[in-house]
Design goal:
Layout: H1 3-12, E1 17-24, E2 32-37
Antiparallel strand pairs: 1-2
């Protein structure tokens, strides 16, 4: 999943995210993204 994919998904739910995101791969099954809503 790219930053643009995450921004599009968030926007569909009423969030406008900046492109400053921190990815944390906490395991082989999932990825966590920390982002700021503008």
């Amino acid at each position: 999943m790219t930053i643009q994919d995450i921004q599009s998904l968030a926007e569909a739910h009423g969030l406008l995210l900046t492109d400053k995101m921190n990815f944390n791969e906490m395991g082989i099954d999932f990825k966590v993204v920390f982002a700021l809503d503008t």
